[in-house]
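so im writing up the methods section and need the Aminotransferase record in one place, dumping it here so i stop losing it
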Amino acid sequence: MPALSHRITTLNGDGSDGWDVFYRARAMIDAGTPVTELTIGEHDIRTDPSILKAMYESAVGGHTGYAIVPGISALRDEVAARVEAQSGVPTRRENVLITPGGQAGLFAAHMAVCGPGDVALYIDPYYATYPGVVRSAGAVPRAVPTRSSQGFLPQRDVLEAASDGAVSLLINTPNNPTGAVYPRDTLEGIADVVTERDMWLISDEVYDTQVWEGAHLSPRALPGMAERTLVIGSMSKSHAMTGSRIGWIVGPEEVITCLVDLATNTTYGVPGYIQDAALFGLRAGAELEAQVAAPFLRRRAIAERVLAGQQAVRMIPAQGAMYVMLDVRATGMSGEEFAFALLDAHHIAVMPGESFGQSAAGHVRVAKTLEDSRFEAALRTLCAFAAGLAQAA
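--- predicted struct ---
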């Protein structure tokens, strides 16, 4: 067989893709062993029936052919209006490209701003696909470390030290996996560095409807940042439409024009009936988004209550998103060791912090994606298990 390309064989670097615990849990389930899954960010509710009805009506109405590649005009207008209302930055449909989910948006954004061999930064901890996305664009990934003791917020001096020779920086707020919501001063420091170094900023804002403390601020709204920022959005988390694969990129018109060319040669757009469903979902307004977000706010309170009564596990303040990050270093284990041990002992699956970078070593990420009573029971078991390990350490 002829050789595969270096790009495709090196997407994961020299190591694992970070999903080993998840794969083992799924293998256990396939073998008939019940597992309590707290791994991936998949809602325990499904897409709202009203959105599915709109999708169905669009499909049977004939919107099943090729859709215009940049996205249907009505949806681009709706996204533009939404982003303008949130950020205060004038935004038109020409600033919007509809993509097959936020993941495709991340890939396209890096293809737009990174050339072969360019250095692209991202904050550690990071969503597990970030380094692979950078490599898939032909760029070289470079992590910017953060500290658990500082709430995993990027520090300006560390960012400055990492930014030599870099062309872009990828940030994510509200953050997966940490739950951090970047405050204004953190974002202003980021803006200063990317402006001084003449870098692009790629802002992953797919959790913007899940803010429990503070407020979401898009860096695109800061002075001088609209012309150097690409914002990634998605219907996946805000409307429980993970499987529908629909998102967007918002950025300068010249960049979007080039990204339309990329989409023409890769995805060739998003099915029209899915776009119509997304348009219906966005027009349903904040009430529907609040309904989708409500369980995660409620389970955050459950986690705080459970974690408050013990010493073996420390909860990182969860200001947003659908996860809690737990420090399990008191057990004497790495996050990966703890996650595998918990899975084997109690059939509870969580994600090791190391799946999201070395800054999260000794932590685990717990998805708040189970019904309340089951979520609480799993957390109590996790804490009791950690307490036993900590006593033995």
